[in-house]
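2024-03-11 09:14:02 INFO worker-7 job=invfold-0412 stage=load source=structure_tokens
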């Protein structure tokens, strides 16, 4: 049966049903998911408790996988595949991490509006997050529609953003929150990259506002003016009318397009166990266009 979509927000995001994601996807099923992503940018699949191997196989259907910040810190890992990103407050020994542990700081950094791996080339395309263990309160994930945000951009902000780029740096938000235990080699291993503040989304052809907390400056502007412009653009893009808040259930698999959305986690009790697994694909289409 074809993939069915139930909208979750007036502008974007939908619940998708009709496929068993634990089974290999056909070419037609991959196409249907891609078409749904181009329209909705966020798809919620309920009751899809994939194991580690199944999640990896599903993600690879959409392209090469990205390691994100695991490129910097090859710390002990709980999973069988290094491409599985551990979005949890759990140590490799299986215990809940202390409040001052780097994993907890990482969870807090995830509470800032961002797009995954915008700090590298190729950047991230799709992220796929699976809910394993949830806390008694909090921990929702919010998504902001960058295409709708551009459509509603006030003229003065549109004028300031058009034709400009922002520099994205991997450790900008981490260092800001006190996670600064990086060697010089680690700090330089993922050099900053620039992306236009206004882009055209490859899948839908719609213009969008490409900003987020990884942006640390706007070339051609003073540091202060550039950072204030970035803050104004993020504030505009994350207004309530552009945001879908996802209430997690165990077994949910949520896919989002990092080129068309921002996301952030919400606060939760860090002393309670919380476990999610993420896989992320590289945006090889844009990378190929830039190389051409």
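2024-03-11 09:14:09 INFO worker-7 stage=emit residues=292
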């Amino acid at each position: 049966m074809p993939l069915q979509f139930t909208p979750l927000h007036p502008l974007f995001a939908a619940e998708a049903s009709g496929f068993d994601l634990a089974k290999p996807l056909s070419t037609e099923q991959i196409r249907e998911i891609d078409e749904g992503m181009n329209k909705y940018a966020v798809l919620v699949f309920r009751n899809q408790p994939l194991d580690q191997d199944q999640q990896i196989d599903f993600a690879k259907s959409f392209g090469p996988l990205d390691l994100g910040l695991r490129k910097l810190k090859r710390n002990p890992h709980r999973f069988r595949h290094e491409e599985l990103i551990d979005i949890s407050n759990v140590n490799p020994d299986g215990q809940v991490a202390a409040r001052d542990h780097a994993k907890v700081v990482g969870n807090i950094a995830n509470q800032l509006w961002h797009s995954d791996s915008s700090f590298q080339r190729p950047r991230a395309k799709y992220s796929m997050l699976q809910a394993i263990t949830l806390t008694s309160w909090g921990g929702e994930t919010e998504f902001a529609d960058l295409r709708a945000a551009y459509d509603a951009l006030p003229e003065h902000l549109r004028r300031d953003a058009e034709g400009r780029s922002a520099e994205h740096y991997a450790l900008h938000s981490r260092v800001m929150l006190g996670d600064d235990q990086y060697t010089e080699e680690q700090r330089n291993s993922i050099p900053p990259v620039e992306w236009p503040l206004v882009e055209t989304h490859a899948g839908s052809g719609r213009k969008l506002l490409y900003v987020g907390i990884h942006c640390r400056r706007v070339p051609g502007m003073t540091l202060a003016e550039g950072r204030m412009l970035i803050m104004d653009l993020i504030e505009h893009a994350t207004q309530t009318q552009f945001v879908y808040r996802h209430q997690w259930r165990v077994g949910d698999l949520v896919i989002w397009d990092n080129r068309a959305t921002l996301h952030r986690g919400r606060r939760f009790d860090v002393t309670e166990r919380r476990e999610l697994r993420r896989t992320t694909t590289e945006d090889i289409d844009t990378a190929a266009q830039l190389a051409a």
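2024-03-11 09:14:09 INFO worker-7 stage=report msg="The first helix runs from residue 27 to 40."
2024-03-11 09:14:10 INFO worker-7 job finished
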